[in-house]
Amino acid sequence: MKHYDVIVIGGGPAGLFTAIECAKKGQRIALLEKNKSCGRKLLMAGAGKCNITQAGDMAHFLTCYGENARFLKQALLAFSNEELLSFFRKRGLEFVTTDKGKVFPKSLKSQDVLRVLLSECERRGIEILYEQAVEEVLKNDETFMVRTSKECFESRVVVVATGGLSYPHTGSTGDGYVFAKRFGHKIIPTKPALTPLKVKNYEWSDLSGTSFEALSYTHWRGGKKLGAYQGDFLLTHSGVSGPGIINYSRYMQAGDVIKCNFVGADSIELFRSKLTKRLSEGKKTLVKTVVRDLPLTKRFADKVLELCGIGEELKCAELTKATRQKLLTTLTEYEMEVKELGGYHVAMVTTGGVSLKEIKPKTMESKKISNLYFVGEVLDIDGDTGGYNIQAAMSMAYLAAKAISEQ
């Protein structure tokens, strides 16, 4: 049985960076990776360009992780976005920032980010053992025994960095939840997050690709309003996507309804009142002329007319009260019922996971089992799209490694 000071399970950014930071003190580190290579999900990040983090201060970051953001405060303050970028810059990787604050490697290649991490692992003598799918983690007194499909290892410290369930073809199959449950940890029910929505009886397929900037919409369940959101919004062939949907998908489930304000009215009632007056005074003016004058593309405006049953030659004076009401509703509170969330094969991250109540936020160590650490997506925390999840993974890894090294 091979003995190590620290065993890290999982070769994504959280696992690789934990191993790198632990190796500062010359400890013998093993990283066990189930695949033939590390970082398969990292290579997909940002459509292969790797949106590694977001520009701005860390106070803003804490608004981008849903209800559990407070847990990350210590980690984000200990290892900020600037410190993350500094780590890579010192190793020759430069970055570019988009006008919306997304940070990418200048090469726009995820492979370059992974290359730096793997090179640093090699430089620090970290043993990366591939095709070592961990099947069991046990603890006897002060020593962990880690059994893989090939052999057994032992260590004083184990770090679980196995990710969640999203993109299962990359190896993220929920292994860490099994290990955590074996040690008595509670697993918060998981579901896909940062994912598009499929819509029941979808009417916009022929407008797939149409986008709206900062579209406002409300979220309803069982007739009760649960939230009001705003963000970039995209019509797809089967539903809706874009950051404005993806970031809030963590709160949604099948059967929920979203009501879309396509015209961007600050006050829906005021907009309806003004449009009603214009239609009433229009007389011989064609309804399509009034609708096409709204802040909409012609293609979208024509689709609205079609959905409301308003013909090419219909004049304002001929518009019935019922049809006018349908037009107003379609423009300002168009309802879409969620058929289902995109599955794990398209979800960027997983919501749910190892309960944060059982993890020390200053060290990432288990409150139940000493020297057992959890970092990254295996925990019940997920961030918005835009580099927030990679930043969180690296920040958690830094805190865990710091605590391990200080022992």
UniProtKB/TrEMBL annotation:
Domain (RsdA/BaiN/AoA(So)-like Rossmann fold-like): give its ranges.
5-402
Keyword Flavoprotein on entry: yes
Q: Which parts of the chain are coiled coil? A: none
Q: Which UniProt keywords apply?
A: FAD, Flavoprotein
User: What residues does the RsdA/BaiN/AoA(So)-like insert domain cover?
Assistant: 191-349
Cofactor(s) for this UniProt protein: FAD
Please state what the protein is called: Aminoacetone oxidase family FAD-binding enzyme
Give the source lineage, highest ranks first.
Answer: Bacteria, Bacillati, Bacillota, Erysipelotrichia, Erysipelotrichales
